[in-house]
Amino acid sequence: MSLGIAFKGPEGIVLAADSRVTLMITAVQAPNQPSMPSMPPMLLPSTYDNATKMLRVKGQDHVGTVTYGVGALGAPTEPRTAHSYIPELEHKLKDVGRLGVKDFADKLSDFFLEKWNTLHLPVIPGQDMVFLVGGYDEGAPYGRVFDILIPSRPTPVEYYADAGQFGIVWGGQREHADRLIHGFDSRLPELVKNFLNLDDQKRDELCKHLKTLLQTPVPFAFLPLQDSVDLAIFLIRTTIVMQHWLLGLRGVGGAIDVAIITRTNGFKEIQKKEIKGEDL
Hints:
Elements: E1 3-9, E2 12-17, E3 21-27, E4 42-48, E5 54-55, E6 63-69, H1 86-92, H2 101-118, E7 129-135, E8 144-150, E9 153-159, E10 167-172, H3 175-181, H4 188-196, H5 200-214, H6 225-243, E11 257-262, E12 266-271
Antiparallel strand pairs: 1-2, 1-10, 2-11, 3-4, 5-6, 6-7, 7-8, 8-9, 11-12
């Protein structure tokens, strides 16, 4: 699941993500064990804490993306992360010059949707490989942020689209970030709707009302770039620490990778895990 964050601030874009990828495997009882009681197949999680979810394409120096959701493409025995396909995307884009943020998001979406379809992967509601794309159009004073859902909604959708709008977008295992920023778990309005037999309009009105009452008063348009970086790290780190004590899927973990994108300097890694040898 992971936790990915994109922050559109007045001084730049912040992208952040953890490094854990979770693969679900089906465990079946070994054959030829008549003395063992019959057990149904079980889904078991296998986690890896060194995945790269911060994606950058060579030659596109004013845009970047983080990914979360479905962690790998391919058959269960041959999964590949989104990061492992970046050399192919770079090859496709090697002669196109600087792309606008929306144009880059479109090409990223087309590339991974083609991979999904070529591999004949199923379309399962809620099971998407999600990309948060952030960056700067040439000459633009402020950045742009989009999200893409492969395969269910490949068309990029922009957040905080007006020039004077700023804020933060996050996704994945988001319940703790939701509670810290919105003041409640994002699942709450739907739970209340079902419990009280509300319609969708009342559910949406409830969600808006709760945000008005409970939203943490963070002045996103005021925050300097350093504070924006600190907030993104805080949300991911808090989720990682909380999951130490929880039953269930601990899908956020490993190192936290962070990058900024600014109008003048483009993409810059602020915090990045490094490949190293054994700790002795």
